[in-house]
Amino acid sequence: MKTKINPFNLTILVLLMISLFNSCKKDSDEILQGTVSDIDGNLYKTIKIGKQWWMAENLRVTRFQNGETIPLVINENDWYNLSISSCCDYENNPSNSQIYGKLYNWYAATDERKMCPTGWHVPNVVEWYELIDYLGGEFVAGGKLKEVGTLHWKSPNNSATNESGFTALPGGYRNDAGVFNGIGNRGSFWSSTENGYYAWGRSLGYSNGYCLGMNDVFSKENGFSVRCIKD
Question: How buried is residue 127: exposed, middle or buried, by Cβ count under 10 Å (0-12/13-18/19+)?
Fold first, then answer.
């Protein structure tokens, strides 16, 4: 014997299912934010992306967790092939660090004295992969990471949506010869993972939505930006 379904009851059931779906979707899409401070008292915005918590600003700390100073290297010749922990301001202008964060060589980024806030660390290459994969892969993730507009990024800042909340900035870099380059058009970030004489990193540019780094290794003496990830 066939059972008739009451149309009214069916409608109620469908509406309940839609409501439940939208509720679950809202929870999963919710942007979770917070703050964290470093040993200098700098306060940083933080953002949850997937299962990871990231700093939503570039690190600008001047001391390790034990209170020891990260050496600030100004002279170009002194920076050349420097293999001890060091940092600098882009073009030796402290006001740049207030906006874009300081630039650190890989030795500082991986120093056992630790420069990220307590409970945070410099991401390894696997953690970067997780972030990029969550955002759709190398060829689209960059746009989802970049700050929108051209206040800091050079025009046209293609594909930038910042839908992740990461708010990546183009802090430029300092190469292993001590020369500054790229502010406004490139953001380069360290990972803690080395590859022989080199180390893995990630780069974003103003002209596309890429987040390159799958096959990119860089000289450890370069000065790059740092984003910390929660332990």
Answer: middle
